[in-house]
Amino acid sequence: MQPKHARPLAVFILALLLLFGFLSLAQADPGAVNEIIPSDRKVDWSPGVQGGIPEVPIVKVVTDPPYNAVPNDGVDDRAAIQDAINDAYAAGGGAVFLPAGTYDIKSRTATDGALVLKSGVVIRGEGADRTKIQFDLSAYSEDVAGFKVLAYNYSNFTPVTGGYTKGSTSITVADPSYFSVGDYAEMEMENDNRISNEDWALNAVGEVVKIVGINGNELILEKPLNYGYDAARNPQIRRMAVVHDAGIERVYLTRLDSGPGQLIFFYNVANVWVREVESYKVLNSHVYAHAAYQCEIRDSYFHEAWGYGSGGQGYGVNLVKHVTNCLVENNIFRYLRHAMVVQVGASGNVFSYNYSFDRQSNLTDVSVHGHFPSYNLFEGNIVQEIDSSDYWGANGPGNTFFRTCVQAEGIELMNDSDDQNVVGNVLGDASPNIISEDSTIDGTLKHGNYELGAVQWDPTISDHNLPASYYLNQTPAFYAYQNMAWPSTGSDINTNQATCMNPARERWDNGTLIPHPFYLRNTLSGNDVVLDWVHRYEYNSYEVWRSTEPYFAPGDANATRIANNVQPPAVGDGASYTDAGAVSQGVSYYYRIRGINGSTTSNPSNERGLFIQPLTPGTP
Predict the structure, then answer these.
(1) Low pLDDT (below 70) residues in the chain
(2) Are 527 and 518 in contact, with CB atoms under 8 Å apart?
């Protein structure tokens, strides 16, 4: 062993994602955020795709042989796109790329799905303003989804015999032979007399779990249970197959005919996503999810429908039976029956920083829709009306409305929907834009809400300091991308509901419906730093900036432009640049890129850092 004073210089290299990254990873330790709302009235809100939505490499291009799709020709492109999806899946996954143009889908792959997406496969266009997929399914009278993302393979149910308390991370089952480590499973129990027993809402209370260990009859769960279960209502669990790690991004979707169906249909899925999509006109839901786990719908624009009647028409994002821990964030919703819906036992989901306006027939745009959805968080949204519950009977406890700005008709609590949390919201100066409860309601926690001309505090709660968030622990990257201070809504920020602002509303006001972040990343290759980012088609070249100081801006005195004409790829959206030898210089470097189009320069990207720390000899 060498003596300590003779140890060689140790160099530690850490790739840092700094504050300005455009990823939804700034999630809080729930144990650190207990202000105002007690822990028994909320859950571990850590929603969305685990690890953040990845940039999946392109493996198939639908206009290339053997697919040979031809955009803009009016011919049915379904077979070409579906073949590319199937081949990408067979190859182990990857992105199926649709270059700019309009693609027509006039037939169906499955009885209830025009295009069928599979595990590990991503549909990606050049952007919602450049790649359009239009569905004309007028040949069919039954429900047909535009994108069907579905698995349907179950074990038998087995009774859950213990461990089924809220927050538990292990349960015991009568027969563990149905399960293996890594399986997803659906847990549920019978309805009680508070929950109406429609045939599509039996066993409404339930959730999706992932099994990460098995010890005899004990199943170890990846995340704590959202619900506490009642032995008298016969809790049970079954293994379920899922479609996982699939996504739809950077496309425009529309349904040309007015037939029934959803544009995107998620059924038994895990870690799937919708990102940077514009979705226009559908009869039922733009995005529908059933028994989904850790899904994410973000940075998109959903608007208008072919119908707005009862029975599920004209919905934006609709999270139904047993959807668990999904994230609906930073979207714009316009002219829908209900923009954001959660129902039939869905739990642990987060709807955050969305903007919903221009309602159809002045119906509620946020609908906590009954059959006992519980512990769902609505944070930082700007909406016109919130109802809990508005139709199908009681909602469960813990649905939380926080730092949301309600601009028209207030928050209505109805139909035995007890133990809701209403904290730090901004409403109006007079009825109807107030918080109202019917005679069936009990146990509402109301604190720090602006209504009737003043902030109203619960006199039994001494804490008047609103937490910034109940699921984030730092400024989310989409706020930094738009250079907006966070939090931007809440009764401690701005009590004028007419001027409430979040990034989604700012984009609408500025006419920029879909954000175009670069998602800059860095990896190491020997002594080189390899930067890669998403090519945005409005730019024809890129410049790369480097600094020894974090939080720099291009053009700062401490910043150097190390490349000024980086060309985008000939095909696809994966741009890159290599800073050769940067590691060997022994200096901590930070990087940003900007897009260039003639005299137009983009805002700088998020910042990535190469942090090199020489250790003092003798330091362990």
Answers:
(1) 1-34, 611-620
(2) no
